[in-house]
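Field reference: sequence -> structure
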Amino acid sequence: MHFLSFALLPSSLVALVAAGPLVSRRSSFLEQNGKDAQALNQKYFQSLSASSSCTSGEVACVGGAFAQCVNSEFVTTPCSGGLTCVALPLVNSPGTSVTCDTEQDATDRIARTGASGGLRGRNIETRADFLLQNVRDAQALNKKFQSLNANSRCQDGENACVDGGFAQCVGGKFVKTPCNTGLTCFALPLVLSPGTSLVCDTKADAKARISATGASGGLFGRSEPAELEARAAKAPAACKVKKRDEIAARTPNASTLLPRLAQSDLGAVAQSWQTLCQKSGGDTITNDPCVQLAGIGGINALLANADPCAQQEIADKMIDFAKSKGVTNKQALIKNAVSYAKHPRNALNINGDTPSTPFCQKAPRNSELKGVSHRQLDGVNPGLFGAPNIPIFAFGEPGSCPFGKTPDVNSCRCN
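Structure field:
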């Protein structure tokens, strides 16, 4: 255990005295954390499979999925919504963490440590050389998956998409894990390194990710008809005025159209919970709360296609853990859970507009979350609500205001 002693200093010297040693100590391990994460990613992407030997309790990334070693065998949990499993550097202490993130965000976070070489510690100048092959491999896998069912023969450790769900071969048979509502399992190309990953995603987003590489042929290597239909929901007049005023306040050019509103801090949000959880002194083994409520369930609940109540359910579970036996940092964990419950969710452009994300319409279990709801991202349409898995609806309908509040269409506010 480390003990710190403090002396009173003139206020003008405090910042200088405190900042120098802390920054120095931080920089001494930060770049090494980046290099350690790169080494782990190199191992995860190239040499690990579900049949690899492991030590019980070990966590890793296998085939783009989060994996934990149970009884000397990896048990995988697929990432969702366009995420893949990666090792990331800690920023406030030596070490790394394993979580679900976008490749781009993971690469950016490693770069900020000062480590060069991208996600796996090597140059990515040859990206164009492998990217097209990644797409072809993903398309071939998706075509193959169409012919598979729960009775198809398989090799132990093999991962696949079967009947729309993530599947792993155990004892010569596929064991399926269904995707969340509105999501389907697909093979998708990695964009910063050779290979593919299996993820639960919407069909529209999966197709968009393949199209973004410049490749043709859609998900299965052939052209597909557009399936999204325009929705007829119309925002109340007061909400249209509110949106126009908000856009004018943000930027002089209100014509910008973004394909999605995604956040780069989701990994940090997950890490903040995981760090507090691991130091709690509570039962961190049963149901693996430090990881499941952070990089798995915690991030998934903040995606555009998450169930409207998923975020609140995760926050409730965080507080349940904070109140459990043996926990020594209860208040810090509860504060983190409340902050998490307020965090915005990603928003996706649908047919030319980016709707607000629907609010949960049921009460939380814990009193600390009473009256707490997620914020909306700047740039969403305040008069329309919806998601890739939820039809667009207008402000004034259930789900357009937090639980316990009533929408006023004349002011576009929740009372």
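Note: Confidence is low (pLDDT under 50) at residues 1-23, 223-232, 247-260.
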